[in-house]
Write a structure and sequence with these properties.
352 residues; alpha/beta; 8-stranded mixed beta sheet
C-alpha cells in the first residue's frame, strides 16, 4: 500500500521499504452521524477507520490514561506507522511508545484509507473537507468512539504535523505533549501552494477526468501529480548517490509510477486541497504544553531557508525546534517517518 502521497511518493525513487512487521494490531470503524462541515455541507454518516496497538489502561476514575494518537500525512493512512523505520524504533519494550504500556491510536483521516472518501461513490459531491473538519472528526473518534478524553501525546507527520498544531489551538491541553514533524505554522502559500495547485490543475486538465465522473482514471493527470510529488519530497543527496546514471534514474522513475498507479483522482484532488485554509499562526500562544517540532534540512516542502520555524517556535512557551541535517541517509520530506533521527528527542519530550 502507498503510505503517503507527500512522503511515500516522494520516496518512490528510493529502494522499496522493508515490509511492516507483524505487530499485534486491532482495527475498527466508528460512524459519526449527521456531521456538518465548515463549508456548510453535510454527510449523514462519516466512517472513521482506525488501527490500534496496545491496551487502554484506566485510572481510578475509570478514564483511559495511556493513549497516544499518531496522525498520518496527505494520502496516507494509520498503517503508515507500522513500517519498520517507525514501528521497530518506537513500539518495542522500553521504547518511547512501548505498546506494553501505551495505547497507540492510528486513525485514517476522512478522505483516506478505510474512512469515508469521494471514491466511495459520491465523487465530487463529497463534502469539501479541510483540516479543521479533519481534526473535529478525530476528536469525535477519540471521545465518542474510543472513550478517550485525554492523550499523553499527539505525534503527527506532514499533514498530521499541521493537524497537531490545529489540535493544540482548538483543544488546548487535550494532549499533554505535541510532536509535529515536517511542517510549518503559516498558510500554505508561495511555492508550497504552487506545486499543490499544479497537481490539482493537472488532474482537472486531463480530458479523462470528466468533472470527476470518469470511467477510467485520468492517467496523464495522475502521472503529473506523481512526478510533482516525487520532486517535492525527495532528498537530492540520496537520489544522486543511489542513481548516479541516467539509465538507473529512469528505470527507478518508471517503477515509481507503476507503484503509484492505485491513486484515485478525486480522492487526490480533495486531500491535496484540504490544506487550503490552514494557518495556525495567529494564535500559536494558545499552545502551552511541551512541544517537539522537527523538520529536516532536505525538505523541499518546508524549506529551512525560510527560517519560519525558528521564528514561530518562540511564541510557544514550552516548544523546542530541531532541524535534522541533510545527508545521504535522510529521506527528504519523508524523514518524518524515520524515527532513528528523532527518537531520542521524542523520549526527552515524553519525560517532561
Amino acid at each position: 500500500m502507498l503510505r503517503s502521497i507527500l512522503s511515500t511518493l516522494a520516496l518512490l525513487l528510493l529502494p522499496m521499504a522493508a515490509q511492516a512487521a507483524d505487530w499485534p494490531t486491532k482495527e475498527g470503524n466508528f460512524t459519526i452521524r449527521d456531521f456538518t462541515f465548515k463549508s456548510g455541507e453535510k454527510l449523514g454518516e462519516v466512517r472513521m477507520h482506525y488501527t490500534t496497538l496496545g491496551t487502554p489502561h484506566r485510572n481510578a476514575k475509570g478514564e483511559i490514561d495511556n493513549a497516544v494518537m499518531v496522525l498520518h500525512g496527505t494520502g496516507g493512512s494509520g498503517k503508515n506507522f507500522l513500517v519498520p523505520v517507525f514501528a521497530d524504533e518506537l513500539y518495542g519494550p522500553g521504547q518511547p511508545l512501548d505498546i506494553t504500556r501505551t495505547f497507540v491510536i492510528l486513525p485514517d483521516n476522512i478522505g483516506h484509507g478505510g474512512s469515508s472518501k469521494p471514491s466511495d461513490g459520491l465523487r465530487m459531491a463529497f463534502p469539501h473537507y479541510d483540516y479543521d473538519d479533519m481534526v473535529a472528526l478525530q476528536h469525535k473518534l477519540l471521545v465518542d468512539g474510543l472513550g478517550v478524553k485525554k492523550l499523553k501525546l499527539i505525534l503527527g507527520t506532514s499533514m498530521g504535523c499541521m493537524h497537531a498544531f490545529v489540535w493544540g489551538e482548538t483543544f488546548p491541553g487535550f494532549a499533554e505533549h505535541l510532536a509535529p514533524f515536517a511542517c510549518n505554522t503559516v498558510a500554505l502559500a508561495g511555492r508550497n501552494r504552487m506545486w499543490r495547485k499544479m497537481a490539482i490543475d493537472a488532474i482537472r486538465a486531463d480530458p479523462a477526468w470528466m468533472q470527476g465522473n470518469y470511467t477510467t482514471q485520468p492517467v496523464q493527470g495522475l502521472r503529473t501529480v506523481v512526478d510533482l510529488l516525487i520532486l517535492a519530497g525527495a532528498n537530492p543527496m540520496a537520489l544522486q548517490a543511489q542513481y548516479p546514471t541516467r539509465e538507473a534514474t529512469e528505470k527507478a522513475l518508471n517503477a515509481s509510477f507503476a507503484r503509484a498507479s492505485r491513486l484515485d483522482a478525486n480522492d487526490a484532488l480533495y486531500y491535496i486541497d484540504s490544506s487550503r485554509n490552514y494557518d495556525p499562526s495567529p494564535v500559536l500562544e494558545k499552545i502551552t504544553v511541551p512541544l517537539l517540532w522537527v523538520n529536516s534540512a532536505d525538505d523541499f516542502i518546508n524549506p529551512p531557508e525560510l527560517g519560519l520555524a525558528e521564528q514561530m517556535v518562540k511564541r510557544m512557551p514550552r516548544a523546542r525546534f530541531v532541524l535534522i541535517p541533510a545527508s545521504v541517509e535522510t529521506r527528504g520530506h519523508g524523514t518524518h517517518t524515520s524515527a532513528k533521527f528523532w527518537k531520542a528527542d521524542l523520549a526527552k519530550l515524553l519525560a517532561e
